[in-house]
Here is the input.
Amino acid sequence: MGELFSETLRGLTPLVVALAFLAVFAAAFLRGFTGFGFGLAAVPALSLVMSPVVAVPCTLMLGMLAGVQVLPKIRHLPDWRSVWILVAGSLVGSPIGIWVLTALPVSAIRAVIGVTLVIAVAVLWRQPRFGKQPSVPVGLGTGVVSGLLNGSTGFAGPPVIIYFLSTQDSVPVIRASLMMYFFFSTGGTLVYDAFRGLVGSHVLLLTAIFFPALYLGNWLGDRCFDGSSAATYRRVALGILLILAVLAVGRSLYDEL
Here is the structure.
């Protein structure tokens, strides 16, 4: 772990810090606006300038802080039944995902990130809807897949985003439910990461460095959401996710050359 800390410090050139700061700000804005997407945006972007083994736990830590920031404002809005079912499933999937993170090559993880994003955007673009409230098995299964992705790539988003956007809930309820799901599921994944030795001083250092970008982006995104329409909400989210998918896949292909 000491070698990883030293390597992290050596890699923190002014250019790397500036690029990562912008990436965290943009990811936090997306999360503040849509209620999801911090990990989806931050992990691919940060993985361009640092190892996913460092980027993933750092993103999880920042995501927890983002949840604390907005909790007082949105705590009365979520669909708590769905949130707790999904969290229970994610706690089963997260340990498997963490093993994948430490076992697979970096380029393979980046490829998984990109392909998963492409699939998520394609499904969400069709605006699928449940005819009624999703069943408990559907919620648990979605949570397991989400936890697996959260542990291995740092973003639990695609399955859960599809789940909530496919319900009949209003946009404010969907957004708040996503925020609370990510807050609790990320906390569980961080506990697993800590036991695996992935949350060390290097992660705490990066979290402290990027916290101002997180706070400003999250605040600005939340302010913009208050004056937006449901159509704008969907277009912004899917457009950004598609761009990130292309970047992640492109980087994984570059690593193989």
Notes: The mean pLDDT is 79. The chain has one domain: 2-256. The longest helix spans residues 230-256. The radius of gyration is 17 Å.
